[in-house]
Protein backbone atom coordinates (compact mmCIF):
# COMPACT_ATOMS: atom_id res chain seq x y z
CA UNK A 1 0.00 0.00 0.00
CA UNK A 2 2.93 2.35 0.67
CA UNK A 3 4.14 2.01 -2.94
CA UNK A 4 0.62 2.56 -4.21
CA UNK A 5 0.21 5.73 -2.13
CA UNK A 6 3.54 7.12 -3.34
CA UNK A 7 2.55 6.36 -6.95
CA UNK A 8 -0.79 8.14 -6.53
CA UNK A 9 1.01 11.12 -5.01
CA UNK A 10 3.37 11.24 -7.99
CA UNK A 11 0.40 11.13 -10.38
CA UNK A 12 -1.22 14.06 -8.56
CA UNK A 13 1.99 16.06 -8.77
CA UNK A 14 2.25 15.28 -12.49
CA UNK A 15 -1.33 16.42 -13.13
CA UNK A 16 -0.65 19.65 -11.23
CA UNK A 17 2.49 20.33 -13.27
CA UNK A 18 0.72 19.61 -16.56
CA UNK A 19 -2.13 21.96 -15.65
CA UNK A 20 0.26 24.70 -14.58
CA UNK A 21 2.29 24.32 -17.78
CA UNK A 22 -0.67 24.53 -20.14
CA UNK A 23 -2.37 27.34 -18.19
CA UNK A 24 0.78 29.42 -18.63
CA UNK A 25 0.83 28.59 -22.33
CA UNK A 26 -2.88 29.40 -22.76
CA UNK A 27 -2.59 32.77 -20.99
CA UNK A 28 0.32 33.75 -23.21
CA UNK A 29 2.19 36.98 -22.67
CA UNK A 30 1.32 40.63 -22.99
CA UNK A 31 1.86 42.02 -26.49
CA UNK A 32 3.22 45.28 -25.05
CA UNK A 33 6.01 43.68 -23.00
CA UNK A 34 9.64 44.04 -23.96
CA UNK A 35 11.78 41.35 -25.58
CA UNK A 36 13.42 40.48 -22.22
CA UNK A 37 10.03 39.72 -20.67
CA UNK A 38 9.14 37.46 -23.58
CA UNK A 39 12.44 35.63 -23.20
CA UNK A 40 11.74 35.12 -19.48
CA UNK A 41 8.31 33.75 -20.39
CA UNK A 42 9.87 31.19 -22.76
CA UNK A 43 12.50 30.18 -20.21
CA UNK A 44 9.85 29.73 -17.51
CA UNK A 45 7.75 27.61 -19.84
CA UNK A 46 10.76 25.47 -20.79
CA UNK A 47 11.56 24.96 -17.09
CA UNK A 48 7.99 23.84 -16.34
CA UNK A 49 8.02 21.54 -19.38
CA UNK A 50 11.28 19.87 -18.30
CA UNK A 51 9.91 19.47 -14.79
CA UNK A 52 6.81 17.82 -16.21
CA UNK A 53 8.91 15.36 -18.24
CA UNK A 54 10.97 14.46 -15.17
CA UNK A 55 7.83 13.77 -13.13
CA UNK A 56 6.44 11.66 -15.99
CA UNK A 57 9.54 9.46 -15.96
CA UNK A 58 9.23 9.13 -12.19
CA UNK A 59 5.60 8.03 -12.47
CA UNK A 60 6.51 5.45 -15.12
CA UNK A 61 9.25 3.99 -12.92
CA UNK A 62 6.91 3.82 -9.90
CA UNK A 63 4.20 2.10 -11.94
CA UNK A 64 6.67 -0.49 -13.22
CA UNK A 65 7.63 -1.26 -9.61
CA UNK A 66 4.07 -2.01 -8.52
CA UNK A 67 2.87 -5.57 -8.09
CA UNK A 68 -0.62 -6.89 -8.72
CA UNK A 69 -2.52 -7.45 -5.43
CA UNK A 70 -2.94 -11.09 -4.42
CA UNK A 71 -6.43 -10.49 -3.03
CA UNK A 72 -9.13 -8.17 -4.43
CA UNK A 73 -9.79 -4.84 -2.73
CA UNK A 74 -12.76 -4.66 -0.38
CA UNK A 75 -15.55 -2.55 -1.88
CA UNK A 76 -18.02 -2.86 0.99
CA UNK A 77 -21.47 -4.27 0.28
CA UNK A 78 -20.91 -3.85 -3.47
CA UNK A 79 -18.65 -6.92 -3.42
CA UNK A 80 -21.78 -9.05 -3.35
CA UNK A 81 -22.54 -7.86 -6.86
CA UNK A 82 -19.62 -9.99 -8.08
CA UNK A 83 -21.51 -13.14 -6.99
CA UNK A 84 -24.04 -12.60 -9.78
CA UNK A 85 -23.67 -15.43 -12.27
CA UNK A 86 -25.77 -13.99 -15.10
CA UNK A 87 -23.36 -12.67 -17.81
CA UNK A 88 -25.49 -9.61 -18.55
CA UNK A 89 -25.34 -8.50 -14.88
CA UNK A 90 -21.63 -8.92 -14.16
CA UNK A 91 -20.87 -5.30 -15.20
CA UNK A 92 -23.57 -3.92 -12.91
CA UNK A 93 -21.14 -2.24 -10.49
CA UNK A 94 -19.40 -0.05 -13.09
CA UNK A 95 -22.74 0.89 -14.65
CA UNK A 96 -24.08 1.79 -11.20
CA UNK A 97 -21.10 4.09 -10.51
CA UNK A 98 -21.49 5.85 -13.87
CA UNK A 99 -25.22 6.32 -13.22
CA UNK A 100 -24.58 7.98 -9.85
CA UNK A 101 -21.97 10.30 -11.38
CA UNK A 102 -24.36 11.25 -14.20
CA UNK A 103 -27.21 11.97 -11.77
CA UNK A 104 -24.96 14.15 -9.61
CA UNK A 105 -23.93 16.17 -12.67
CA UNK A 106 -27.57 16.60 -13.72
CA UNK A 107 -28.44 17.94 -10.26
CA UNK A 108 -25.51 20.39 -10.30
CA UNK A 109 -26.24 21.74 -13.80
CA UNK A 110 -29.98 22.03 -13.18
CA UNK A 111 -29.34 23.96 -9.94
CA UNK A 112 -27.00 26.40 -11.74
CA UNK A 113 -29.43 26.81 -14.63
CA UNK A 114 -32.30 27.51 -12.22
CA UNK A 115 -30.33 30.26 -10.46
CA UNK A 116 -29.19 31.87 -13.73
CA UNK A 117 -32.69 31.90 -15.21
CA UNK A 118 -34.09 33.52 -12.06
CA UNK A 119 -31.48 36.29 -12.21
CA UNK A 120 -31.82 37.09 -15.93
CA UNK A 121 -35.08 38.51 -17.18
CA UNK A 122 -35.29 37.91 -20.92
CA UNK A 123 -38.63 39.57 -21.64
CA UNK A 124 -38.50 41.42 -24.95
CA UNK A 125 -40.29 44.45 -23.65
CA UNK A 126 -39.40 47.78 -22.11
CA UNK A 127 -42.46 47.86 -19.86
CA UNK A 128 -43.92 44.93 -17.92
CA UNK A 129 -47.38 45.08 -16.43
CA UNK A 130 -48.84 42.37 -14.20
CA UNK A 131 -52.43 43.44 -14.90
CA UNK A 132 -54.65 41.67 -17.38
CA UNK A 133 -53.74 42.39 -20.97
CA UNK A 134 -56.02 44.52 -23.04
CA UNK A 135 -56.09 43.90 -26.77
CA UNK A 136 -55.30 47.13 -28.60
CA UNK A 137 -54.81 47.77 -32.30
CA UNK A 138 -51.17 47.29 -33.22
CA UNK A 139 -49.37 47.14 -36.52
CA UNK A 140 -46.72 44.47 -36.18
CA UNK A 141 -43.25 45.17 -37.51
CA UNK A 142 -43.14 41.52 -38.61
CA UNK A 143 -45.40 42.32 -41.58
CA UNK A 144 -43.06 44.64 -43.47
CA UNK A 145 -43.04 44.47 -47.24
CA UNK A 146 -40.14 42.25 -48.51
CA UNK A 147 -38.99 45.13 -50.72
CA UNK A 148 -38.54 47.27 -47.61
CA UNK A 149 -36.27 44.62 -46.08
CA UNK A 150 -34.15 44.41 -49.23
CA UNK A 151 -33.88 48.19 -49.40
CA UNK A 152 -32.88 48.40 -45.74
CA UNK A 153 -30.08 45.84 -46.21
CA UNK A 154 -28.83 47.62 -49.32
CA UNK A 155 -28.44 50.83 -47.28
CA UNK A 156 -26.06 49.14 -44.84
CA UNK A 157 -22.66 49.64 -46.45
CA UNK A 158 -19.83 48.42 -44.22
CA UNK A 159 -16.24 47.87 -45.42
CA UNK A 160 -15.06 44.30 -46.04
CA UNK A 161 -18.62 43.03 -45.57
CA UNK A 162 -20.84 41.34 -48.16
CA UNK A 163 -24.49 40.27 -47.96
CA UNK A 164 -26.39 37.44 -49.60
CA UNK A 165 -30.17 37.56 -49.23
CA UNK A 166 -32.32 34.45 -49.64
CA UNK A 167 -35.84 33.40 -48.63
CA UNK A 168 -35.96 29.64 -47.97
CA UNK A 169 -38.92 30.09 -45.60
CA UNK A 170 -41.22 32.15 -47.81
CA UNK A 171 -41.39 35.87 -47.14
CA UNK A 172 -39.03 35.76 -44.15
CA UNK A 173 -35.48 36.64 -45.13
CA UNK A 174 -32.16 34.93 -44.30
CA UNK A 175 -29.10 37.15 -44.68
CA UNK A 176 -25.70 35.46 -45.11
CA UNK A 177 -23.13 38.01 -43.92
CA UNK A 178 -19.45 37.50 -44.77
CA UNK A 179 -17.10 39.71 -42.73
CA UNK A 180 -13.64 40.07 -44.31
CA UNK A 181 -11.98 36.62 -44.33
CA UNK A 182 -12.84 36.00 -40.69
CA UNK A 183 -16.36 34.63 -40.29
CA UNK A 184 -19.77 34.05 -41.81
CA UNK A 185 -23.08 34.72 -40.09
CA UNK A 186 -26.60 33.65 -41.06
CA UNK A 187 -29.18 36.11 -39.70
CA UNK A 188 -32.79 34.89 -39.76
CA UNK A 189 -35.28 37.78 -39.78
CA UNK A 190 -39.02 37.81 -39.33
CA UNK A 191 -39.93 40.98 -41.10
CA UNK A 192 -37.17 43.27 -39.86
CA UNK A 193 -36.78 41.61 -36.46
CA UNK A 194 -33.83 39.29 -35.89
CA UNK A 195 -34.95 35.87 -34.64
CA UNK A 196 -31.78 33.74 -34.85
CA UNK A 197 -28.08 34.06 -35.67
CA UNK A 198 -25.63 31.31 -36.64
CA UNK A 199 -21.89 32.06 -36.77
CA UNK A 200 -19.25 29.91 -38.46
CA UNK A 201 -15.68 30.29 -39.67
CA UNK A 202 -14.81 31.67 -43.07
CA UNK A 203 -13.69 28.22 -44.29
CA UNK A 204 -16.90 26.48 -43.14
CA UNK A 205 -20.04 25.87 -45.17
CA UNK A 206 -23.07 27.89 -44.09
CA UNK A 207 -26.12 26.38 -45.74
CA UNK A 208 -29.43 28.32 -45.41
CA UNK A 209 -31.24 24.95 -45.20
CA UNK A 210 -29.29 23.99 -42.04
CA UNK A 211 -29.11 27.08 -39.87
CA UNK A 212 -28.93 25.30 -36.51
CA UNK A 213 -25.66 23.42 -37.02
CA UNK A 214 -22.92 24.93 -34.82
CA UNK A 215 -19.38 25.69 -35.89
CA UNK A 216 -16.67 23.10 -35.29
CA UNK A 217 -14.44 25.85 -33.83
CA UNK A 218 -14.87 26.83 -30.20
CA UNK A 219 -14.05 30.48 -30.89
CA UNK A 220 -16.98 30.87 -33.30
CA UNK A 221 -19.36 28.99 -30.98
CA UNK A 222 -18.44 31.55 -28.32
CA UNK A 223 -18.98 34.43 -30.78
CA UNK A 224 -22.42 32.99 -31.60
CA UNK A 225 -23.36 33.12 -27.91
CA UNK A 226 -22.38 36.80 -27.84
CA UNK A 227 -24.40 37.54 -31.00
CA UNK A 228 -27.51 36.20 -29.27
CA UNK A 229 -26.88 38.52 -26.33
CA UNK A 230 -26.49 41.47 -28.71
CA UNK A 231 -29.66 40.39 -30.55
CA UNK A 232 -31.65 40.87 -27.34
CA UNK A 233 -29.85 44.12 -26.54
CA UNK A 234 -30.56 45.77 -29.90
CA UNK A 235 -34.15 44.51 -30.08
CA UNK A 236 -36.48 47.48 -30.63
CA UNK A 237 -40.00 47.00 -32.02
CA UNK A 238 -40.47 50.78 -32.11
CA UNK A 239 -37.32 51.49 -34.17
CA UNK A 240 -36.64 48.25 -36.10
CA UNK A 241 -34.61 49.85 -38.90
CA UNK A 242 -32.24 51.48 -36.43
CA UNK A 243 -31.98 48.20 -34.49
CA UNK A 244 -30.91 46.31 -37.64
CA UNK A 245 -28.30 48.92 -38.57
CA UNK A 246 -26.90 49.07 -35.04
CA UNK A 247 -26.68 45.28 -34.87
CA UNK A 248 -24.88 45.06 -38.20
CA UNK A 249 -22.40 47.72 -37.08
CA UNK A 250 -21.73 45.77 -33.88
CA UNK A 251 -21.31 42.51 -35.81
CA UNK A 252 -18.86 44.19 -38.21
CA UNK A 253 -16.53 44.89 -35.26
CA UNK A 254 -15.47 41.21 -35.46
CA UNK A 255 -13.57 41.93 -38.67
CA UNK A 256 -10.39 42.14 -36.53
CA UNK A 257 -11.24 39.22 -34.25
CA UNK A 258 -7.71 37.77 -34.33
CA UNK A 259 -5.82 41.06 -34.66
CA UNK A 260 -6.94 43.10 -31.63
CA UNK A 261 -5.78 42.60 -28.05
CA UNK A 262 -8.09 42.72 -25.04
CA UNK A 263 -8.60 46.26 -23.73
CA UNK A 264 -8.57 45.01 -20.15
CA UNK A 265 -5.58 42.65 -19.90
CA UNK A 266 -3.74 43.56 -23.11
CA UNK A 267 -3.38 39.93 -24.20
CA UNK A 268 -4.24 38.51 -27.60
CA UNK A 269 -5.04 35.04 -26.19
CA UNK A 270 -6.50 34.00 -22.85
CA UNK A 271 -7.56 30.44 -22.02
CA UNK A 272 -6.83 29.53 -25.61
CA UNK A 273 -9.27 32.08 -27.11
CA UNK A 274 -8.93 35.60 -28.58
CA UNK A 275 -11.11 38.47 -27.26
CA UNK A 276 -14.54 37.17 -28.38
CA UNK A 277 -16.68 39.86 -26.72
CA UNK A 278 -17.33 43.28 -28.23
CA UNK A 279 -18.68 46.07 -26.05
CA UNK A 280 -22.23 46.94 -27.08
CA UNK A 281 -21.53 50.69 -27.01
CA UNK A 282 -17.84 51.23 -27.73
CA UNK A 283 -17.24 48.03 -29.77
CA UNK A 284 -13.97 47.47 -27.89
CA UNK A 285 -12.68 43.86 -27.68
CA UNK A 286 -12.61 41.98 -24.37
CA UNK A 287 -12.08 38.43 -23.23
CA UNK A 288 -15.19 36.94 -21.70
CA UNK A 289 -13.60 36.81 -18.25
CA UNK A 290 -12.34 40.42 -18.58
CA UNK A 291 -15.53 42.18 -19.66
CA UNK A 292 -17.07 42.30 -16.15
CA UNK A 293 -13.83 43.14 -14.31
From TrEMBL:
Its main location: nucleus. It is found in: Nucleus. Keywords: Nucleus, Transcription, Transcription regulation. It comes from the Eukaryota. This is Mediator of RNA polymerase II transcription subunit 27. It comes from Bactrocera dorsalis (Oriental fruit fly). GO terms for molecular function: transcription coactivator activity. GO terms for biological process: regulation of transcription by RNA polymerase II. Transmembrane segments: none annotated. Belongs to the Mediator complex subunit 27 family. The keyword Cell wall biogenesis/degradation does not apply. GO terms for cellular component: mediator complex.
Amino acid sequence: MEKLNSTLGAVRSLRSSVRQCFEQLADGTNAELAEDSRTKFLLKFQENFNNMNAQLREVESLINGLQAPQTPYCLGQTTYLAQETAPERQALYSQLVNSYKWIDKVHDHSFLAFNNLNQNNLRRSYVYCSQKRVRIPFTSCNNFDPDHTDKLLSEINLPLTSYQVCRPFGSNVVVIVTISRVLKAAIVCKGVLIEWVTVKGFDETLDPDDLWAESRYEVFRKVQEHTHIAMLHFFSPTLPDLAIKSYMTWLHSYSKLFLEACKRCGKFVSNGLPPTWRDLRTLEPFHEECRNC
